[in-house]
Specification:
5-stranded antiparallel sheet; 20 strands; globular; alpha/beta; 487 residues; 8-stranded mixed sheet; Rossmann fold; 3 domains
């Protein structure tokens, strides 16, 4: 363990409160895995627990599945005749077990992975292409995904020339309240994406409720399932939808802007909080509406276009004077022309994010992981930027954060830049330089960056975790303490 230098906070004249959330201290954990782990509990032994006693391995009380995976990982590493790719594939399986594991199992798995692979090896294993079916079905593919809270079905139109030798762009299409995934994939779209080498994905949700938590959850489950079957380009993922599906496009795009390269809302209502459109910086937007629409008035799309254009965003608008409330499939080729070549913005770039009125608190906003506590409210604003600069003979990573909410804890995932190894780091929160320390690569940061997104582009061995504590008497005269942990 090495120490960070705590920075004292200045007292305010007259003991006045700060305009921001009252914080009286912060504990920083540099590039650690503690956010994923929990203290070892004294829980009773569960039925069926296995003794994983192998040479060099301490017996653990974990589920049979996890125990067997851990034992097999040790055996694979000790078998010098096996190729590295087999060991890496098994490391991926262990990491995937983390999200389904119980708290005690999770802590043991994290410790096991940290001992089994140094950060560089774990990074390589997770960045390597996952083992995929060599000859998956092409054409129309129907799949059902089951999960703890329910199930979701979807149809994918896979190009006939698909091969896992390269990554393929993906386009999601969301049906409306009276539509279905089949209608979207076979009637509204008629093979145009596949003809251009794009995988078309049409998920299904009850009555087009994409803006509800269940709709968002189902889309993300479909996205996870698709990536287990086909090699996709995570930098070229676009989305469209009409009517309720168009409202779903606005919802998904403003809630998860880091996921999309382009968004195409068709005959959609204006988002309930129009200011959330500011989240779409870096997302290419093409808005469509029929002038004669009597269900959702065209002024909704006209207003959205004006707001995005005023911000200088990449947005275009098409209005058909001859149609009403319609998908306007006759313009599909023009839509594909518009979104072709679009790529999602730099996932490590500066951002400004406004919490949308629909949906639950997100654990992750761009490269920040947030424990909101009880503070999540629509309209909360989060801004973040990481600046890397020279400092003497080394480097300084300056993390600048503006957060309007009284969040409980923040973890800033930092870019996987080799210059950060051993670099100094400073955290500036709401205009105040609160903490300083030094960085080193860690297994915990890698596992945290992989958790939830499974996105190789967001993997990093560097992170800074800050636990914030509030107090009724404000922050006058208080100090900040900090400790750095290295694995």
């Amino acid at each position: 363990m090495s120490r960070c230098r705590p920075l004292a906070r200045e007292a305010h004249a007259g003991g006045a409160r700060r305009p921001r959330s009252p914080l009286f201290g912060a504990l920083i954990l540099l590039s650690s895995g503690l956010l994923l782990s929990t203290p070892h509990s004294h829980a009773q032994e569960r039925p069926g627990a296995l003794d994983t006693s192998i040479e060099g391995v301490v017996p653990l009380e974990v589920s049979p599945t996890v125990a067997n995976l851990m034992a097999e990982q040790v055996a694979r590493q000790e078998a010098a005749a096996l190729g590295d790719h087999l060991v890496d594939d098994h490391l991926r399986q262990l990491v995937l077990q983390l999200e389904a594991a119980e708290p005690t199992e999770r802590a043991l798995l994290i410790d096991h992975i940290a001992r089994a692979a140094p950060p560089a090896r774990l990074l390589g294993a997770l960045r390597a292409p996952a083992a995929l079916p060599s000859h998956p079905p092409v054409g129309k593919v129907a799949r059902l995904v089951r999960f703890k809270e329910g199930a979701v079905s979807y149809i994918a139109m896979i190009p006939e020339g698909y091969t896992p030798d390269r990554a393929w762009p993906v386009h999601f299409s969301l049906h409306g309240g009276g539509g279905s995934s089949l209608k979207n994939c076979r009637a509204n779209w008629q093979g145009e994406p596949a003809a251009r080498g794009v995988i078309l994905v049409c998920p299904r949700v009850y009555r087009g409720g994409w803006w509800l938590p269940g709709g968002e959850e189902r889309l993300l489950r479909v996205w996870d399932d698709l990536r287990t079957q086909y090699r996709v380009d995570v930098d070229r993922v676009s989305i469209d939808g009409a009517s309720s599906g168009g409202a779903g496009v606005w919802h998904m795009a403003t809630r998860l802007p880091w996921m999309w390269s382009a968004a195409v809302p068709r005959c959609a209502a204006l988002p309930l909080d129009p200011e959330s459109l500011g989240n779409l910086k870096g997302v290419r937007v093409h808005i469509m509406h029929g002038l004669r629409d009597g269900t959702i008035l065209v002024q909704n799309s006209q207003t959205a276009f004006a707001l995005l254009r005023a911000r200088g965003f990449d947005v275009t608008y098409f209005e058909d004077p001859k149609v009403g409330h319609h998908f306007m499939y006759g313009h599909n080729e023009a839509v594909l022309d518009r979104i072709e070549g679009a790529r999602r913005a730099d996932p490590w770039g500066a951002f400004s994010y406004r919490a949308a009125p629909h949906g639950e608190a997100l654990e992750r906003v761009h490269w920040l992981k947030i424990d909101w506590g009880q503070s999540y409210r629509p309209g909360e604003v989060i801004e973040g930027e990481v600046a890397l600069m020279r400092q003497g003979e080394g480097w300084l990573a300056e993390v600048r954060l503006e957060i309007s909410a009284d969040v409980a804890r923040i973890e800033a995932l930092l870019p996987p830049d080799p210059r950060l190894e051993g670099a100094d780091v400073a955290v500036i929160l709401n205009g105040e330089r609160v903490l300083e320390g030094a960085l080193s690569a860690s297994t915990g940061a890698i596992l945290s960056s992989w958790s939830g997104s499974h996105d190789p582009a967001m993997l990093t061995p560097y992170s800074v975790s800050i636990t914030l504590r509030g107090d009724d008497e404000g922050v006058a005269g208080r100090g900040a303490s900090a400790e750095a942990y290295r694995q």
